[in-house]
Specification:
Blueprint (H helix, E strand, L loop, with lengths): L1 H11 L20 H11 L33
Protein name: Glucose-methanol-choline oxidoreductase C-terminal domain-containing protein
InterPro entries: FAD/NAD-bd_sf, GMC_OxRtase_C
GO molecular function: oxidoreductase activity, acting on CH-OH group of donors
Length: about 80
């Protein structure tokens, strides 16, 4: 998690984002690993997010739910 936060911060500080990102609003800026670990322990929570699987089908197939364009079979 610590490395993921550092990579996200590095990505968002890239020159390409200048003018698009005003400020960081969640993770501590220029934090040590210990500070990031404290931040993670204090802010990460579980969430209940229902998921499911939808099989992709080939054109003309009788099986599956979505095609390669992620269009739902039978929906218009």
């Amino acid at each position: 998690m610590i490395e993921a936060i550092k990579l996200a911060q590095t990505f968002c500080r890239a020159p390409a984002w200048k003018g698009y990102i005003a400020e960081e609003i969640s993770s501590p800026v220029n934090a040590t690993n210990d500070q990031l670990q404290d931040y993670i322990r204090g802010s990460v929570v579980t969430s209940y997010h229902a998921i499911g699987l939808a099989a992709m089908f080939a054109s003309g197939a009788r099986y599956g739910v979505v095609d390669s364009d992620l269009s739902v079979k039978g929906a218009s």
